[in-house]
Amino acid sequence: MRIDLHAHSTASDGTDTPAELVRNAAAAGLDVVALTDHDTVGGYAEALAAVPHGLTLVTGMELSCRLDGIGMHMLAYLFDPEEPELARERELVRDDRTPRAHAMIGKLRELGVDVTWEQVSRIAGEGSVGRPHIASALVELGVVPTVSDAFTPDWLADGGRAYAEKHELDPFEAVRLVKAAGGVTVFAHPAAVKRGRCVPESAIAELASAGLDGIEVDHMDHDTDTRARLRALAGELGLLVTGSSDYHGSRKTCRLGEYTTDPEIYGEITRRATGAFPVPGAGGATGA
């Protein structure tokens, strides 16, 4: 089995619609794909209606969190999307994205970059606006060559010249909320140093004690030595080890299935979940 547990659609900052995402996952030879848009479940219905035969869809989300001033992302799988407490926090995070984007655009304009809300809004489309959309605007304007090059201290990285804060969850609260909704939690790309400061391993140990299920080890932002270190840490802490592409369509260079999760780990995730269950494809819709 080929299992990719981290992918984004146009419901947040990917460029594939949810339906295109599941079709592309099947075309890439995946058996399982997880839809993990940022702070939203808005792509679920379209993805569920389009899952083709031979592919299983795992519903999920990537929650924005912050610990001691350091941004981090928490992958949540197979939770009840209607659970009210988690839904309320999810909407608080999502709703703060628009004023935050306006603030970052204002800072960029002060720096002499002729970016506008209209441009960023057009790029985001129906998705939940975020830094990758602003980064794409910088690429369009020729300010930076790639989206990744926008995530530096000069521009949009945490603490960067054009950075603005938004409402983010305490990761311990995120673990509690997701678990209460029957879900499973995995710390996304915990050592992606290119994105900015990372939480220390001591914090990962504390999260494990608080119920964190796993860490995403096999990821494009982790080099070989980092993956080995994280795998050893997961073994010490009794955490599950996942791998995934963090696919964003054409917005990033990663490909669906570039990194994958071991079938036994996937099986354990599904065994632990009680809020929702993986959905095997029934043929799906044919439209885009």
Structural overview:
Strand 3 (56-67) and strand 4 (70-77) form a beta hairpin. The chain has helices spanning 18-27, 44-50, 84-95, 97-110, 117-124, 131-140, 171-180, 201-209, 224-237, 263-272, and strands spanning 3-7, 32-35, 56-67, 70-77, 184-187, 214-218, 240-243, 279-280. Strands 1, 2, 3, 4, 5, 6, 7 and 8 form an eight-stranded mixed beta sheet that branches. The chain starts with a strand and ends in an 8-residue tail after the last strand. The chain has 288 residues and is α/β, with parallel strands linked by helices. The protein has ten helices and eight strands.
Can you give keywords for this protein?
single chain, 288 residues, alpha/beta, eight-stranded mixed sheet, 36% helix, globular
Backbone structural class: alpha/beta
DSSP E strands, number? 8
Overall shape: globular
Radius of gyration based on Cα positions: 18 Å
Q: What is the share of helical residues? A: 25-40%
Strand fraction: 15-25%
Largest sheet: 8 strands, mixed
Query: Alpha-carbon distance between the termini?
Result: 26 Å
Detail the poorly predicted runs.
Answer: none
Taken in chain order, the helices and strands follow as EHEHEEHHHHHEHEHEHE
The average pLDDT value, as a whole number, equals: 94
Tally of individual helices: 10
